[in-house]
């Protein structure tokens, strides 16, 4: 009887361990197989969305973001911690940047997973639920649109967008330095806002097409969904990469301070190089957003 109970206990314990989100993905394996972070982004987002809605509906739009962040922290912290250790072992800056690129890739996959899952939820869920889940994100989009409308010239628009993005990048750097992986909150928040923008564009285009032709086919749904996603991700992937690079830099410095490795010159030089790269990426993203994206998608439209 005791042997049977022991087996039952082991089975139940193993089952509940699998149900813990942080144990579903190995932080060291996802660096080798970064596409798994896309699945992690989808799984974490859908579970967080459901929990936020059933627990605190009035604050679900922000609570959802917090739940996603809490789920992702173990994975991302271990990855960033490993990057700081690599700084002490590898003295070639080119090799260091190649190692950081692996982390950047799996962070981008995670971002895309969050965007795709939340955008799908925005499109597929009933309007009443959508209003509660994405109310704050919708207000943020309206505020950004109102600020952008004041910049009538392309150069003025570029300056406004770049300064706003620079502010976000500085927050990523500061949050990562103060909280280790604090930038993940800002980036997850941005992912939820992008998801609402993509979902809203998709709904608008589908409604317009249905009004004009009376019905919409499967291929048209797929085409509009693809265009809606890339309308924001064409320049957004560069912008988000800049934020992640700055977040990695801040986190490396933060962990170095905690482990008393800040006196190592390789750590500081590597962090400064990452900050410089993030600024260059941000500048390039602003140019693409203002001068290239509207041109391409106006032609496609």
How would you characterize this protein structure?
- This protein is mainly α and 301 residues long.
- It is built from eleven helices and no strands.
- It has one domain.
- Helix 3 packs antiparallel against helix 4, helix 4 runs antiparallel to helix 5 and helix 5 crosses helix 10.
- The protein is globular, with a radius of gyration of 21 Å.
Compact summary:
The chain is an all-alpha fold and 301 residues long.
Give the key terms:
301 residues; mainly alpha; 0% strand; globular
Kindly report how far apart the N and C termini lie: 71 Å
The helical percent reads over 70%
Strand content: under 5%
Order of helices and strands: HHHHHHHHHHH
User: What would the principal axes of the Cα set say about the shape?
Assistant: globular
Radius of gyration, Cα only, in angstroms?
21 Å
Contiguous runs where pLDDT drops below 50 for at least 5 residues:
7-19
Name the structural class. mainly alpha
Mean of residue pLDDT? 78
What is the number of domains?
1
Number of strands: 0
